[in-house]
Amino acid sequence: MTRSLKKGPYVDQRLIKKIQDKKPEDKSPIKTWSRASVISPEMVGVTFAVHNGKDFISVYITEEMVGHRLGEFSLTRKFTRHGGKMQKEIELADKQKEIDSSKAEKAGAESGKK
Known about the structure:
This protein is of the alpha+beta class.
């Protein structure tokens, strides 16, 4: 466990103040850099803009997120895909199969009309 039980969960006090000052009809996200803050029950229903090192990711807080940290929902790494020569060949083969199947459906539809 990262923080002792006697200390309790870490919640940035500035975030709590911003939540309390926010009007209920205001739907704009609250910007924060505090990724280590634990999500508390008061935060449910609020949208946060959590910084991931490059830009802000919008995170809407739900009941299931309570107890987790804000940074868990704003990923810092972007997965593009696994690459390499073999992967390109596999993707080309899949694309070719898709084209062939669509041609076969089209030909079947035309023969059914005649």
